[in-house]
Amino acid sequence: MLDVLRRVVQEVNGAADFFEALHIIVTRVRGALDIDVCSIYLKSPRSGRLVLMASEGLREESVGRVEMDVSEGLVGLVASRAEPINLENAPDHPRYRYFPETGEERFLSFLGVPIIQQRKLLGVLVVQHHEPRRFDDEHVSFLITLAAQLAGAITQAEFTDEIASETPEISHVNIEATGIAGAPGVAIGRAVVAYRLAQLDSIPDREARDIEQELARFAAAVAATRGEIEDLKRRTETVLPAEERALFDAYLMLLGSDSLAQRTEARIRGGQWAAAALRDTVRESVRVFEDMEDAYLRERAADIRDLGRRVLSHLLPDEGNDQEFPEGGILVGEDLTASHLAEVPIERLGAIVSARGTGSSHIAILARALNVPAVMGVADLPVSRLEDREVLVDGYRGRLYVNPSPELRAEFRRLVREERELEEGLRELALEPAATRDGRAVPVLANSGLLADIKPSLNSGAEGVGLYRTEVPFMIRDRFPGEEEQVEIYRQILASFDPMPVTLRTLDVGGDKALPYFPVQEDNPFLGWRGIRLTLDHPEIFLTQLRAMLKASREHPNLQILFPMISTLVELKEAMVLLNRARDELLDEGFVIPMPRVGVMIEVPAAVYLVETLARRVDFLSVGTNDLVQYLLAVDRNNARVANLYDTLHPASIRALELIAEGARRAGKPVSVCGEMASDPAAIILLLGMGIDSLSVSVSAIARVKWVIRSFSSDRTEALLAQCRLLENPDQVRSLLNNALVQAGLGGLVRAGKN
């Protein structure tokens, strides 16, 4: 049965359209199970009724015409119970309903299984036979597995034109797709599918007629690509930060390295024509990355594919599209990269939607830096069918809507207008210090990982840098950066904010952040070799970074060092030993360097219960709520299947944060929050009530965070926190806090559908 299932799935994936896929399923299942009938009923989103959409064995004229409520018939019973129904003699069942137009009176045995996607009932898959028989467990398991595969195909079909044009009963508006929130904001505009370069996989095998000529063609294509990339780099000087434009330098390096050019030339000399030689080289490079589970490494594979397609576009006839990017256009792609973004006039870009990727993808990081809404990882997104379709994007919840109703369109226009007015109204407020209504100062600092964030952070009113992710400079290189390279990076950010504090987090790779030149393959990377665990095991890397940080602080004593992923007191002691060793080495070399303030990042549940012990040995604590909540709830927020379970307002998350705040207070040490929770207006109320000393957020969120802080008194936030302690689920907590925001005049921060 497994082989049959694989063949069916392969054929379905290769079907020309949705209805051909349905026909393949009913035909192949009927033959594989040696039965008389196989049928598919789908639930109409408009009427909620089950409609017969395909059948092999029932009368053809009944397809598209027979329908029933979920409370009717055996098919309705499968749908309402959401579990298989296996009957030896169907007419004897009290829920049996006869449809004369189908001719099914001849069939006695019945097996139906529900088709479900993300808890949503899509339809029912049914098999029938004329003789009384109870289908065995193998048949039941086969249909359940096939129904699960079919669910993805149906979800994708909701975006296509076939349903709307050929089956009016199922056509509907406001087609919704769920992905991962990549960058906050809302947008409405026409979809523009990312510029499609020549497709490497379509290149056929062919012998080179003239090897020297093929080498010359390839060399010319590489030269043209090099010129194209250099031009893109020049064009983006005022748009993308220098750190991000380093990606184009990496592309240029690959063009001249053994990674691409030399191996392609070797294949040409072996007799392949240039296009196929390039194809095989790119495949070879990409295959290793695509097989890895690590998200960051998969994203680097996308960069290699992108570069290969660019070279190929100069080997083959031009496939370009000269159409001007529309104002407010929504850039949509299978796997968007920084170079796709570079080809778009940023001032016209309304939002970004990528079928692949996560909230930590390079393109998502750029979107947040540019304050452009983004939705990532939209599974089964039929990108090619979205060109010029009207799309609504909700970057807060990771949703997009196609074919919107007039009512939904009007609602999004209102949200877009309100966001624009809100941003304009908060510009002056952002430059003022943040304090509660009773005068308690709560500094708002910036999260950063790019040198180009410096100017926007300063202009946004940031009171320092609460978290500088030092792993970003490591990720964009093809090797570990040297000590002096790191010194220059750290010096720039320290100097720019002096005398305001700058917190540099030591190298935090592993989990979903890996170095392409230092791959770590693990079955469960989030529970593996990451953060401080990795750097303690490699003191040569750790000491180099600590020395660079300390040297950068010689003239700027505003440095604060933060150790990530601490879970034991031993780890903290070992890290402090290396920090003191690095400082002693520099003192011996004649450098006069003050000892910086040192902090621990609380992001592992174990650290929550050790918080007072840890706090007594450092100068400050910083709570990384992104990882902490993931670990507490056992939810990967970058996994679309379970991302809806990730909620920072979960009662367990709130209690953990209270324990942290209480432990820090007993130790007499300040505590900040630097995760995304710090920019959630509802969560800010609770953090203020707990007595959190400072917040560190993305640059685009600073003004809104300050607005919330200035709108509440300490007594009010403490009272709201006490009320939330009595609530049992996150929805109740958010509803209470959103009501408080509205009462305080901050209704503009409470988005529709966020409750």
Automatic annotation (TrEMBL):
EC number assigned by the record: 2.7.3.9
InterPro entries: GAF, GAF-like_dom_sf, PEP-util_enz_mobile_dom, PEP-utilizing_PTS_enzyme, PEP_util_C, PEP_util_CS, Phosphohistidine_dom_sf, PTS_EI-like
SUPFAM superfamilies (UniProt xref): Enzyme I of the PEP:sugar phosphotransferase system HPr-binding (sub)domain, GAF domain-like, Phosphoenolpyruvate/pyruvate domain, Phosphohistidine domain
This protein's UniProt keywords: Cytoplasm, Kinase, Magnesium, Metal-binding, Phosphotransferase system, Pyruvate, Sugar transport, Transferase, Transport
Gene Ontology terms describing biological process: phosphoenolpyruvate-dependent sugar phosphotransferase system
Cellular component, GO, one term: cytoplasm
Subcellular location: Cytoplasm
GO terms, molecular function: kinase activity; metal ion binding; phosphoenolpyruvate-protein phosphotransferase activity
Keyword Metal-binding: yes
PROSITE patterns, A to Z: PEP_ENZYMES_2
GAF domain location: 17-164
Catalytic activity, reaction form: L-histidyl-[protein] + phosphoenolpyruvate = N(pros)-phospho-L-histidyl-[protein] + pyruvate
Cofactor(s) needed: Mg(2+)
Family classification: Belongs to the PEP-utilizing enzyme family.
UniProt cross-references to PANTHER family, sorted A to Z: PHOSPHOENOLPYRUVATE-DEPENDENT PHOSPHOTRANSFERASE SYSTEM, PHOSPHOENOLPYRUVATE-PROTEIN PHOSPHOTRANSFERASE
Protein name: phosphoenolpyruvate--protein phosphotransferase
